[in-house]
Design goal:
The protein has 382 residues and is α/β, with parallel strands linked by helices. It has helices at residues 15-45, 53-79, 90-102, 135-144, 158-170, 182-199, 228-248, 288-301, 330-344, 358-366; strands at residues 252-256, 259-264, 278-281, 307-311, 376-379. A five-stranded mixed sheet has the order 1-2-4-3-5. α1 (15-45) packs across α2 and α3 packs parallel to α6 (182-199).
Length: 382
């Protein structure tokens, strides 16, 4: 069966859906409109001075919601333009694109190991022309559909594929194809050829006006309004959890070159003979509030080794953080995290790196003869 030609089924709405809708979603979303209506009513009727103390508290909260909604409008205007991302490194983009196409090509045994490359799940396969009915091609076509509004595969035309590829490579809207430079046309032709081989079919010429290609850095940003009380409550919860981790698990909060993290190091742990440290990188969500149970579980079961949690306020609803809308790039984060691990003495540093600073060279020489085991990286992307 070709799943890529099946329309996305509509989920049936159960009673629990309406319970969550009217019990949680509607009151949550109505907070800001009600706050505006209440403030306008109180100010318009001139009854502010006659309010009782508890009504004044309610009015103060509503006023905070109104002012904060104006601030959110300001933030929305800041992020509304297309993201100022460059085209990126061509070699890195090509490598990432090939890895995307190679994913799922290997014939894996039930345990997930890759017998063909002798590396578990490694995408080392050659990108060859697949048959249209090849299960690997069907799965890949179906996986690409969300980029085109989950449209059926046969309705996705060549222009949509070129539009998506050009954005992926150059971070821009594709101009008329004839206006592309010779080198750009060569890059596009090569990428399209590889994509069609992986999909097991050739895109049909044309354009389908009912399909909108998703291009995350160019598309209009969808803003979901959240109440001021939501952000304040979440901030206080995460602040309390940070304090609780400090006293209950001997964890401390620290900064290093712009990175914020939580760290716990056992007193008698040895960087040479001790167990390998754990580094946890959380995903999009609510920060410590969302991952507190997971972190407690890891700290309990791996109490014999250091544990580091990289905090990322830009994906933790931490709207009050100064870098909420100006986070580090992934390259900056990776480079600074690597230097942090060197600074902590958890990893070995390459002595032959000519770009090292004097401080880094001093740290590196102090570690000579002490073979490091490295670290174990854990991440959660959803």
């Amino acid at each position: 069966m070709d799943f890529s030609e099946l329309p996305i089924p509509h989920r049936q709405r159960t009673p629990s859906y309406y319970l969550a809708l009217f019990g949680l979603v509607v009151p949550f979303c109505a907070t800001i409109p009600f706050a505006w209506a209440y403030v306008i009513y109180v100010v318009g009727t001139g009854s502010l001075r006659s309010l009782s103390w508890h009504t004044q508290v309610i009015f103060s909260i509503a006023l905070c919601e109104v002012l904060f909604s104006i601030y959110q409008c300001h933030l929305a205007r800041l992020v509304a333009p297309p993201a100022p991302c460059g085209t990126g490194d061509p070699g890195e983009i090509q490598t990432a694109f090939r890895r995307l196409l190679q994913t799922g090509l290997a014939n894996l045994p039930p345990d997930g190991g890759d017998e063909e490359s002798h590396r578990p799940g490694s995408p080392e396969e050659d990108i060859i022309q697949l048959e249209f009915n090849d299960p690997r091609a069907i799965d890949f076509r179906n996986a690409l559909r969300p980029w085109f509004g989950n449209a059926t595969w046969s309705s996705i035309k060549l222009h949509h594929a070129q539009q998506w590829l050009y954005w992926s490579i150059y971070n821009a809207d594709i101009p008329p194809y004839e206006s592309l430079t010779t080198s750009q046309q060569a890059v596009m032709a090569s990428a399209l050829d590889l994509l069609q081989k992986r999909c097991g079919c050739i895109f049909e010429e044309g354009f389908n006006p009912s399909i909108t290609t998703m291009r995350m850095t160019l598309d209009r940003v969808n803003i979901t309004w959240r109440p001021f009380t939501f952000y304040v409550t979440l901030y206080l919860i995460n602040l309390s959890l940070r304090t609780w981790f400090r006293y209950s698990w001997n964890v401390r909060f620290a900064h290093h070159d712009g990175l914020e993290y939580l760290i716990r190091t056992p007193k008698h742990w040895d960087p040479v003979t001790g167990s390998r440290p754990l580094v946890f990188i959380h995903g999009l969500g609510m920060g410590l509030f969302q991952y507190s149970v997971v972190l407690q579980h890891l700290m309990h079961h791996f109490s014999d080794r250091p544990f580091l949690v990289l905090l990322q306020p830009q994906i933790s609803q931490h709207i009050f953080h100064p870098r909420f809308l100006k986070p580090m790039t992934r390259h900056e984060t990776a480079d600074r995290l690597a230097l942090l691990l060197v600074h902590l003495g958890w990893v070995h540093h390459d002595l032959d790196n000519a770009t090292d600073t004097e401080e880094e060279k001093e740290i590196s020489h102090s570690l000579v003869g002490k073979r490091k085991k490295g670290v174990t990286m854990l991440s959660h992307s959803k």
